[in-house]
Amino acid sequence: MELEHAIGFSGNVASGSVHVHPSGDYIVYALGGNVVVASLRDAHQQHFLRGHDDHVSCVSLSKSGRYIVSGQHGENSDVLIWDFDSRQIMYRLQEHDLGIKLVMISDDERFLLTVGADKKMVAWDMQTGMIVARQTGIKDTACACWGGRRLDTKRRPTTDYQLATGGVANLTYWTLNPMEGSFTREDCTLGNQVRNFTAIAFSFDEDYFFAGSSSSDFTAVHVKHKVLHSTTGCGSGGVLSIVAMRTANSGDRVIVGCGDGSISVFEGQRNGAQTCRTYQRGSAEACTITLDGGVTALVLRAADDRSGEIKLLAGTSHARVYAVQLSMADFRAISAPPAECRMLTEGHYDAVTCVAYPPDSSEYFATASADGTVRMWDVNTYEVTCMGSCQTRITGKPTCLTFTGDVIFTGWEDGKIRAHEAENGQELWAIDHCHVDGVTSLTSSRNKKFLVSGGEHGEVRVWEIRTREMIVNLKQHTSAVTSLCLFADDSHVVSGSRDRTIYLWDLQTESRKASLTQRMGGISAVILLPDHVQLATVGQEKSLTFWDLREPEPLKSMPCGTEFLAIAQYSPPLPSNADPSADACASTIVATGGVDGVVRLWSFVKAGVIAEGRGHSGAIRSLKFAPDGRQLVSAGDDGAVLVWNVFLDEEGDLGGAPEGR
């Protein structure tokens, strides 16, 4: 078992949500608890840097691309320094508490700056991993930027380093003296202006730094005097990212990404005293573009002074990465082509609640997320082939999903079942008032004629797809129905509930045929084994339990020490010359996932764990095997959709898998 591909992108991490390696071949970004190094040329080439035990909160890439630094949320608050080439951890830095807010590497790659939620700022030696300087009790800090060497009065570089930090109602200039191991602070003079600063960049010559704020403007501060020189409005939704560069005549070009998805180019010319008081926005058509989601990262890839073309990579809070082309904001913008963008990757930007394959194809699968979107993914390219969306403030979140291959059916917290066309994602129809307080489980018949749904109050209902009318109503559960499994001939359905019961229903006679009761804790998920007599459940009892529908007590129960929320199974088809009396469940592989974020594979015969997969940093909400059993898809609260390769030998056990990446 190996992690083949990770779909998703943590678009809200600090220090820039996405970084481009200087080679231009790779991008680096966070996804849940992983740092991902992904090729821009081959969607199948990804490397996963695993070392954190909680969500990654910030990522930084050194100027040469040699180092990656990442910090995490949580009590451990570790900062990891990675070697890019070997993908190995060089240092694990443990100084902060309560989580890491920022990590920044100096341009010469000598020092690392970390800022923690404990209001502590630390400078580290990148070569030794030792602390150089420490400052406690700092003001709330949301952004930081190194500014190279501090200049003396004759503009000669000193041995001290300069940097700037910003946060809630504060903008501070710092000097780091590495010889003495100390920070020196100077508050910037902003007059009567009060801002919450969110992004900072130094000018090309480090005479200015530009600080973007939540008020959707950026402030230019003169480094020598620490005085505000100008404030320029831009976009809306606050400034989330900012890039500063040099113009052809030694002026300043500032590129700003805002919360409304806009990216705008501004330019300002300096006077004889080398100061600038105004910055002009370029033409709306060539120098501004709007993306989907707040622009949390901007990376300059190329700037051509002859053509006036600027190429950027942009990451957004909606888990999308774009290649963007804009024009410089000068006379060339008049004749420049319109601004363009091309989406490179996308994912869900909130918890992924459910995943499903169609019954007869392993080439694509569907997911639904708390971000209100339903998407279908091509396994060969990992691109979205169609997407539908709803406004979650009206519909609530999607809670369950079933996929016939032609239509994606979803259940929602508003009590509706919705159908989306698999070709274009368009909503075809919705059944109102299916369940009071929400649909909690959903499955479709193999003949594609009806749906079976479970509700928050224990109802199991059957809906005819053609007429969209309820044809069966079964009510004996006393709590939410969390899982439904139809027999292969669509004649019976098994339901599991939070009330600790498992029922077998005959849909033709509309009667209950069997009842099982879990000793402790509610049922979270149920799978039906190939013989249609045995089944497996997981739930609040923190065990994997196997049952026989003819026996009131479990066949076997395997404690696991953590609550499982999702379960899936794959049974290799029996060969044509197999003994008719052969056990159809003998080669069954069961996958589980739960609150600890670990995917486990179990052997039904061996009654034990045969493989584990670590990649999620949050609870796993859904698991599905591909119909051919070669891949397993997991999805969870961290917004990640992970595709795992599963290697089975001829007997159905795990075979010799290549070493995981």
TrEMBL record:
Positions of transmembrane segments: none
PROSITE patterns: WD_REPEATS_1, WD_REPEATS_2, WD_REPEATS_REGION
Keyword Acyltransferase belongs to the record: no
GO cellular component, as recorded: cilium
Pfam annotation, one family: WD40
WD repeats, residue ranges: 93-134, 345-387, 432-473, 474-515, 516-557, 613-646
This protein's UniProt keywords: Cell projection, Cilium, Flagellum, Repeat, WD repeat
Protein name: Flagella-associated protein fap196-like protein
Organism of this sequence: Chrysochromulina tobinii
Lineage of the species this protein comes from: Eukaryota, Haptista, Haptophyta, Prymnesiophyceae, Prymnesiales
